[in-house]
Amino acid sequence: MPLLFDILHEDADLLVINKPAGLVCHPTKGDAYSSLIGRVRLHLGTDAQPRLVNRLDRETSGVIVVAKTLAAAGELGRVWETRAVTKSYLAIVHGHVAPHRQLIDVPLGKDESSAVAIKDCVRSDGSPAQTEVEVVRRFEREGRPFTLVRAGPRTGRKHQLRIHLAHAGHPIVGDKLYGGDEWLYLDFVFGRLTEEQRARLILPHHALHAECLDFFWRGQPWHFRAEPEEWFTVFVGGVVE
């Protein structure tokens, strides 16, 4: 059997995974290997009742916490409800981001003009959303400017980091939905992406990685960190500090 996933931590209550890009969290097909929760059940056994404490988009890689017991799932769910969780993401974006640090503070809501049902956008009547962004490295590839940023969401809106970065003029490299041409997403969903479209996307997945997750639970702090995948680190020119 192929490797199920990269395990960052495991004990009687928790299983913490570095989710690979391109893997959905919940099943969309019958194959147990095709989703993260399916692979978790293969790892834990048929009698297990795992619960994903947090989730990531299909193409986002990084830290996922799985509760192995219903008791742990309930406790951690309450921790997440209090928003006493700190998240840090790495993203490769188009262009050279000018300010070293910035707070993107614009509300988000449903994009009613889009052909994609799940797409959101910046809108004045949307829900409040804030993202802190810090430049890690500015660089160029084949004469084109890119920036590696570290982003911390203060709120937890759907697709928040992707929309905020695009709104700031720096969409995430490889983002099929918020990169400026949503037909890339639709063609991807229907399995008809052309080689020309793949070349425009530059990278095989959108370059967003859930790097760190911190929270306080059962009387102690918990910290988990996951390294980005090789395609990500090679593009930015080496290990991210």
Topology:
Layout: E1 6-10, E2 14-19, H1 36-44, E3 51-52, E4 61-67, H2 70-81, E5 85-94, E6 101-105, E7 108-110, E8 120-122, E9 130-141, E10 144-153, H3 160-167, H4 183-189, H5 195-201, E11 208-217, E12 220-225, H6 230-236
Characterize the overall form.
globular
Low-confidence stretches: none
Described by strand count, sense and barrel closure, the largest sheet is:
10 strands, mixed
- SS content category: alpha+beta
Rounded to the nearest angstrom, the distance between the terminal CA atoms is 33 Å
Query: Count of helical segments?
Result: 6
Number of strands: 12
Please tell me how large the radius of gyration is.
Answer: 18 Å
Which percent range describes the beta-strand content? 25-35%
Q: SSE string, helix = H, strand = E? A: EEHEEHEEEEEEHHHEEH
Mean pLDDT across the residues is: 94
- Multimeric organization: single chain
Helix content: 10-25%
Structural description of this entry:
- The mean pLDDT is 94.
- This protein starts with 5 loop residues before the first strand and ends in a 5-residue tail after the last helix.
- The strands form 2 sheets. Strands 1, 2, 3, 4, 5, 6, 9, 10, 11 and 12 form a 10-stranded mixed sheet that branches. Strands 7-8 form a two-stranded antiparallel ribbon.
- With 241 residues, it is α+β, with helices and mostly antiparallel strands.
- The chain contains 6 helices and 12 strands.
